[in-house]
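Hello again, I could really use a second opinion on something today. I owe you a coffee for this, so here goes:
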Amino acid sequence: MKRRFFIQIGGLAGAAAIGLTACGGDATEPGKTPAAGGDTTAPGGGGGGDYTIVIVPKDATNPWFVRMDEGVKKYAADTGLDVYQKGPSETDATMQAQVIRDLIAQKVDAIGVVPVDPGALEPVLKEAMDAGIVVVTHEGASQQNTQYDVEAFNNTAYGGFIMDNLAKAMGEEGVYTTMVGHVTNASHNEWADGGVAHQKEKYPKMTLLEAEPRVESQDDGEVAYQTAKELLKKYPDLKGIMGTSSFDAPGVARAIEELGLKDKVFTAGTGMPAANKDILEKGLVAALTLWDPADAGYAMAALAKAVLDGTPIENGLNLGIKGYEDLKFAEGSDKVLEGSGWIVITAENVDSLGF
C-alpha cells in the first residue's frame, strides 16, 4: 500500500474530515505533478494508483450502515480497488475516533466518515489530514476538518420534504414536535430546522410544541418509543412528531399503536423500507422518506477517488450513481456537495425497493 499525500483541489486547502471514501485512480507521488484536468463526468476520473480507502460509519451494526456497506462493496467490485467499510461496534464518537486513529496508523490513502459528533471528531480528522490522508464526509455539512462533504440532497429542503408528509397526515393543523437521533448530529438538526421553517412558511395552522420543541432518540428505536410515549401522555394535544433518525418514526409509530392513537397522532421521518413494511401497511405511518445508504456509500468512495486522482471537484461532478450524477455546491459553500437522491416509501412501493 502506497502512502498518499494531500492534494489541493479546486483551490481548496484541505481540512480533515470524515466521510465515506473509495479507492482507485492516481494520486500524486512525492516529487511528481498531479495529472492535469480530469473527467468530471466519470466517477473519480482516470488514474491507476493502488489506493486503500476506508469508509467509517457511525457504527457497524445499524441496518442503515449495513446497507451502506453494500454500496461500498459494489464500488470496490466495480473498480477493483481496496475499498472497505470499518465502523465502531456502537454509535459512540470516542469509539469512532479510535477507528480513525487506527486507520491513520495503517497509512490508508483516504478515509470517509459519517460523523457521530462532528465537533468531537475535529481533532482526529485534523490528524488524518496532517498525515496526508484524504478525508471526505457524509452527513457532516458542518465538519471543518474535511476536504469535501457529499450529501444526497440539500438538508433544509429534505427537512421541508419530511414536513410535507407530516403536514399531509395531520391535515395541516395541530401541535407537533421534532425528534433527532442526537442533539449533536448536524444533519438531523438541519432537517428538523428545515422542517420547522417550512411549516412556518406553508402550514400556519400547525404549531411547534414550545415546551419541548426538540427531543432526542439516541439513534435507538426503544428510546424513540419511550420518549414518544412520555410526550403523548404529557401533552394530550400533541398531534404529530417529525422524526429524523431512521429509528424515530418507527419508534413513534409503535407508541401510537400501543396507546390506541392511530389516526389521531401522526409521524413522518426517515426509515428503511423492509424494516418498516408492517407499520406502513397498518397505516401507522403514511409515508417515510429516505435516500439509499448504499448509493451514499458508493458516492463517498467515488468522491474520495476523485480527490486522490486530482479530478476537478466542481458543479456538475458525476460520481456514477443515481442521485449523484450532477452534484452542486451548497449555497455559500465550496466544500459541501449536494445531489438529488431522496425517495418516498409507502405501503404501495415498499416491496419494490430491494432493501
Q: What stands out?
A: The longest helix spans residues 63-79. The chain has nine helices and 14 strands. Confidence is low (pLDDT under 50) at residues 1-48.
